[in-house]
Write a structure and sequence with these properties.
The chain is α/β, with parallel strands linked by helices. The chain has two domains: 267 residues, 2-Layer Sandwich (BirA Bifunctional Protein, domain 2), CATH 3.30.930.10; 91 residues, 3-Layer(aba) Sandwich (Rossmann fold), CATH 3.40.50.800. Helices cover 36% and strands 21% of the residues. The structure holds one RNA strand.
Length: 450
RNA sequence: GUGUCCAUAGCUUAAUGGUAAAGCUCCGCUCUGUGGCAGCGGCUAUGAGGGUUCGAUUCCCUCUGGACACCCCA
């Protein structure tokens, strides 16, 4: 497990740096995050998924048990620390373990099955950062717990596909799919023992990592990228030939249903995924350009996990997608997202009496759904108008001592450079009229996003 | 965890073993009640620590951070 202190203390001096691999999401990028969350929520609701948030940290065992002690995630990528009573806690590296823990703990098996949940949460992995990979990153994910049927897998994959389409990046990715069988004696265990036998005596030809994998995690031998290991992997027994009757039929149906749904896929027998809990279906959406960090989305079926975590035997399937990677792709493709932050009106004031009037006027404008900003800290009209220009507002309202005295206000059309004088009491009404079909930002609790 | 490259102002870049330069931005003024343009002025920097040296921003070491790849994954 990663020791959180092995990188020393933060920099001294008059400037703070960020810890390695974390980043600030600035307003321009948040436009993308907001949009993605909106799409996810929309598609989730359409299919009856309901949102869940599990804690940022859990007892370390939750992940060690669910993800698998010998996986890379658990053995070297977790943010693990002790609390004041010496209990080992870990920042969540993925979303399924916590969700399953919650399913069991809250007796969700008493709800109508399958239980369909989704999440949009930050996750943490202690890993060397690079393109599309950070130590804190956001994922949205979907889990369908409580029933087993290829149609559920198909529907879930279709949902994953639909969301990437909505986000405009579907064309960049292609679905890779495989079945890694189940724990039935005749299925994966049989395959594993034959796989071990195949590698028996061939250890010399393997890389250091793979030498240990033979014992700890033989499945991963199949997707080692090193040349020599790959040659052996080609010759090794194929899971496809070992699937039990049930798994074989399950997978066949799934592929058939995907065709029915019009989802393109590539069968990839070396796709095994780095988490131990998967059974039967595994899939990832890969960058067609075949770069590094090419998966934006991955998941699969995990029929054994709920039982492994202490619940009743319960089948389930799920996936998660990396939001930063999607944003990267959207930016690269120059995909624009709807901007909801554009301002409608700038309020400029001249003199203390006018400033007082402006304070209340701004409040009224905002209550009416007109997105309003001012520069109450600036005194010169020049500086204020320059500000108005910077914010690209269509209109500026100007109130000075003359206007206070006459109970009026000036409304300036910033594009045309023309302006007119209106009665102070009618400003809000007048502004609404001028903004016309602009979407006003009225408050409705159901629409609050965060 | 491994490898390669990198770190000068808010941003982009320049220069030097001997007082660090510019463009853009920001703020102000010209213009004391009207933005975009122009002119002028101002603020702000050698990531941190140590070493070599008369002197280090420059050379060396360590740390921290950044970029990319490997491993692995979202």
């Amino acid at each position: 497990m990663a020791d959180m202190q092995d990188e020393g203390e933060m920099t001294t001096g008059n400037m703070f740096q960020r810890p390695k691999g974390v980043h600030d999401i600035l307003p321009d990028t948040h436009e993308y995050f907001t949009f993605i969350k909106k799409v996810v929520r929309h598609r989730a609701r359409q299919s009856g998924f309901r949102r869940i948030s599990t804690p940022i940290f859990e007892f370390t065992d939750v992940f060690a048990r669910a993800v698998g002690a010998d996986t890379d995630i658990v053995s070297k990528e977790m943010y693990t620390f002790q609390d004041r009573k010496g209990r080992s806690l870990t920042l969540k590296p993925e979303g399924t373990a916590g969700t399953v823990r919650a399913y069991i703990q809250h007796n969700m098996h008493t709800l109508a099955q399958p239980v369909e949940l989704y999440y949009i949460e930050p996750h943490f992995r202690y890993d060397r950062p690079q393109k599309g990979r950070f130590r804190q990153f956001w994922q949205y994910g979907f889990e369908v717990i409580g029933e087993s049927d290829p149609a559920l897998d198909a529907q879930l994959i279709y949902l994953a596909q639909t969301i990437t389409e909505d986000l405009g990046v579907a064309g960049l990715f292609k679905l890779q799919i495989n079945s890694i069988g189940c724990m039935n004696e005749k299925c994966r265990p049989h395959f594993m023992s034959d796989l071990k036998n195949f590698y028996f005596g061939k250890e010399r030809s393997l890389c250091a990592d793979c030498k240990t994998r033979v014992e700890t995690n033989p499945l991963r031998l199949l997707d080692c990228k090193l040349e020599d290991c790959r040659i052996l992997a080609e010759l090794a027994p194929k899971m496809k030939d070992y699937l039990c009757e049930e798994c074989r039929e399950f997978h066949k149906q799934l592929l058939d249903l995907l065709k029915e749904l019009g989802v393109e896929y590539v069968e990839n027998s070396s796709l095994v995924r780095g988490l131990d809990y998967y059974t039967k279906t595994v899939f990832e959406f890969w960058d067609r350009a075949l770069g590094a960090q090419n998966a934006i989305c991955g998941g699969g079926r995990y029929d054994g996990l709920i039982e492994l975590m202490g619940g009743a035997p319960t089948p389930a399937v799920g996936f998660a997608a990396g939001i930063e990677r999607i944003v990267d792709n959207m930016k690269r493709e120059k995909i624009r997202v709807p901007k909801k932050d554009d301002l409608h009106v700038f309020v400029a004031q001249l003199g203390y009496e006018a400033k007082k009037k402006c304070l209340t006027l701004m409040t009224k404008l905002r209550e009416a759904g007109i997105k309003t900003i001012g520069a109450l800290g600036k005194d010169s009209i020049k500086a204020q108008l320059r500000h108005a220009d910077r914010f690209q507002v269509p209109y500026t309202i100007i109130i000075g001592i003359t206007e206070v005295r006459d109970k009026t206000a000036i409304i300036r059309d910033m594009k045309r450079g023309s302006q007119e004088i209106v009665a102070y009491g009618k400003v809000v009404e007048e502004m609404k009229k001028m903004l016309g079909k602009e979407r006003l930002d009225t408050y409705s609790p159901g629409e609050v996003l965060y």
